[in-house]
Amino acid sequence: MLKKSEPHLSYTFPRTKKKIKNRSVLAAMTNKQSHGDGVISNQEIKWLSRRAKDGFGIITTAATHVSKYGQGWEGEFGLFEDSFIDRLTLLTKNIHKYDSLIFAQLFHGGMRAPEKLTGQVPISASIIPSDLSSTGFTKAVSIKQIEQLIYDFSSAALRCVKAGFDGIEIHGAHGYLISQFLGKKTNQRKDNWGGSINKRAKFLLRIIEEIKKVVPESFIVGVRISPEIKELGIHLDESLELGKLLAKTEIDFIHLSCWDCFKSSTDYPKDKRTLTEWFTQSIDDLPTVISTGGIWSTKDAKAVMNQGADLIGVGRVAIPHPEWAANLNIKDYSPQKMPFSAEDLRKADLSKIFIDYMKNWKGFVKDEK
Ligand SMILES: Cc1cc2nc3c(=O)[nH]c(=O)nc-3n(C[C@H](O)[C@H](O)[C@H](O)COP(=O)(O)O)c2cc1C
Questions:
Q1: How far away, in angstroms, is 316 Cα from ligand 1 center?
Q2: pLDDT of 193-247, one tens digit each?
Q3: Contacts of residue 225, Cβ cutoff 8 Å, sequence gap at least 6
Q4: What residues pair up with 256 in beta bridges, in sequence order?
Q5: Is 3.20.20.70 the CATH classification of the domain at 11-337?
């Protein structure tokens, strides 16, 4: 059997032949640092560029909304207008200076796009209760709206091409619009867009298809999914079916959002396999696999590669430790854990807004009162 590579060694995407200097991926992280009109700010560019400068192979932006009404958070930069392209070009040029790839994470919040932010009752696959709606419920999208949303995704992807991104990650994870279509509880449609997993996946599959029509061959297209979200009715068996459907498309990577790469499935707690192993051992011909969740040390990164992941995604460790990826050649590298002082985070190029946001993540920022 071939020995798996090491986290600090380079990787080449099989189809596009795009090469990265190591196996590290900065996972998408909402940081609220951009402008109210959707323009990316210098602060957000600075935060991402620092992680490229310090050694990450791939930089993924925060989730960015493809439609004006899909915004999930304050201070989120958008992709819904051509006028955003110039500033985004500044971002991609900065990242390329450091020889990293840059992907944008495309999303629509659906039921999680607050009305107080968008001025519209949130939409979803079906009518479902929503605290973020003035009516207490979402509106179910019409077929015409579905087509418009698919067009919004492909238009946003084309803007990314124009802005110099190397690729995109379609955000099908974490309970936003695409996962609301995937979930059995959130998608109760009786038409072709609901029912079996094949039908619930149609929204995502059409988005991929339409994006592939407008982007050049060299452009990387991948999908992030959550293998299990009980509240939405997303379960492992069907996620593996989805994985098989995705493996038949022309996507370049599948990104598994595990939250904890070392735990087993909540649907099959007695089976020792991790979520990554369930995928890599059950599906032939998977594209490049990225796995993210709970990775902190070189040992963790190596262990997740041994589970079958090609690339290692990290979120939280990259916030205080922008140089994380450059240390992956050190066998026993395991940087300091939380809590971090505001000063530590300022030194890591986070603005006050982002530091304040991180205070919502329990125990992450030192209480300095
Ligand atoms: C501050 C913060 C913001 C996040 N925003 C996003 C996001 O915009 N899109 C996304 O897919 N995941 C988001 N995540 C999840 C991360 O990408 C990652 O999957 C998660 O933090 C688990 O990895 P970790 O244990 O390395 O932090 C966010 C996580 C954090 C900590």
A1: 7
A2: 999 999 999 999 999 999 999 999 999 999 999 999 999 999 999 999 999 999 9
A3: 172, 173, 179, 182, 239, 242, 243, 246, 254, 255, 256, 257
A4: 225, 291
A5: yes
Q: Tell me 331's DSSP state.
A: T
Round to whole Å and give the CA distance between 321 and 335.
Answer: 8
Indicate yes or no: pTM above 0.70. yes
**Distance between CA atoms of residues 5 and 107, nearest Å:** 32
Distance (Å, whole) CA 59 – CA 49: 8
Residue pair 199/192 in contact (Cβ under 8 Å)? The answer is yes
Report the atom number in ligand 1 closest to the C-alpha of 296: 26
Ligand 1 centroid from CA 30, angstroms: 7
Say whether pLDDT at 3 is over 80. no
- 59-91: per-residue pLDDT in tens? 999 999 999 999 999 999 999 999 999 999 999
Q: What ranges do the domains of the chain cover?
A: 11-337
The b-or-e profile of 52-61 (16+ CB within 10 A means b, else e) is bbbbbbbbbb
**DSSP-based three-state secondary structure for 345:** helix
Q: For 120-169, how does the pLDDT look when each residue is reduced to its tens digit (9 = 90+)?
A: 999 999 999 999 999 999 999 999 999 999 999 999 999 999 999 999 99
Q: Which positions ≥6 away from 202 have C-beta within 8 Å?
A: 181, 192, 193
CA–centroid distance, 28 to ligand 1, in Å, is 6
